[in-house]
Design a protein that fits this description.
With 425 residues, this protein is mainly alpha-helical. It is 73% helix and 1% strand. It is found in: Membrane.
Length: 425
Amino acid sequence: MIRDLKIAKQEQDIGFYAGFVGATYFLARTFSSVPWGIFADKYGRKPCIVISILSVVVFNTLFGLSTSYWMAIVTRGLLGLLCGILGPIKAYATEVCRKEHQALGISLVTSSRAIALVIGPAIGGFLAQPAEKYPNLFSKESIFGRFPYFLPSFVISILAAGSCIACIWLPETLHFHDDEKVEAIDALEAQVIDSKLEGGKAKEDSDTSTKNLLRNWQLMSAVILYCIFCLHDTAYLETFSLWAVSSRKFRGLSLTSQDVGTVLAVSGVGVLVYQLAVYPFLVKYFGAIRPLRPAAVLSILLLITYPFMANLQETELKILINIASLLKNVFSATITTACNILQNTAVAQEQRGVANGISVTLMSLFKGVAPAAAGILFSWAQKHMTGLFLPGDQILFLMINMVSIIGLLLTFKPFFNMSSALRRS
């Protein structure tokens, strides 16, 4: 899309401009996440979810109709500003489940987002430029020919509209009236209060103010970990598609957009199967928090192999890149699920909307930096393939890996107390 908008003067600059389109959504969400969290705590999770989905229907459609680079920037920014679903939906997933099922509830939210982040680009890969790919179905004079990126956006908007209709049957969780659910929530809140007892002295109970939440180190350490791993994941996703379609002369994979769409679709289905069939057993035997570190280590080792895939050809390349992408998304889903559970068990129910708002605000700031930084780094790497101590593509993936290494190191004391987190969860 950036190439067709003709904002980039040369091929190596496409990643630079693409990064800012990706960053706009997250930077706009930085300013609106806490207000959305306060709204969800005051008026309920359901209204916030419905309004957010409606904003997707409107502004995602307008994004597909963009005729200039700046129109694309503005529509993505407005979508980020008005889509406040992420914080409330994580609070909702915790509240709608009993304690023994909370890990699965959070993991389903995480996996649904992971699937969306791979199925969404897959829809783009198959449906973008339909008049060129499917000339028998779409003419160049039709709206889909004049706006080559409208069809994938329109399909996603239809899916969002369906989700909005499904919200009719979505129960509100902010005020429970079922005794069994009340008991489950009371038990969870009692557990949170007990976890605040240190050295025989009870800390003061937190109220709903953002100031007191910012002083809650159990919450803030979990949020910072979550932000760092989100920075890594977003930079990886931004880089992967650009690297996969770039030419062999830049040590890319020279895949088509359809090939990339297939890889991302396979990863999405694989993550869904993992979360539904494998992850519950993992939680049963090891808990939701303990797999965080092994998943981070395996993710780091896997990403080291990516630059060497440029040496592969045809069938072996497609097989290995599908396996690598699937494993990478499985590890990411495991890590983000653990971080989300840590955040939601660190506060009481009436604080979860604001707490997740703080989390999404900081995470959006990190995710806003990630695409822009990844795009700039990708363009730099393609211009410096030789003459350095490592080829540009290896430096690119090394820098992305460094973020994950920092996150792994922060899971240890004195920054983070894993033993205390395991007791709370």
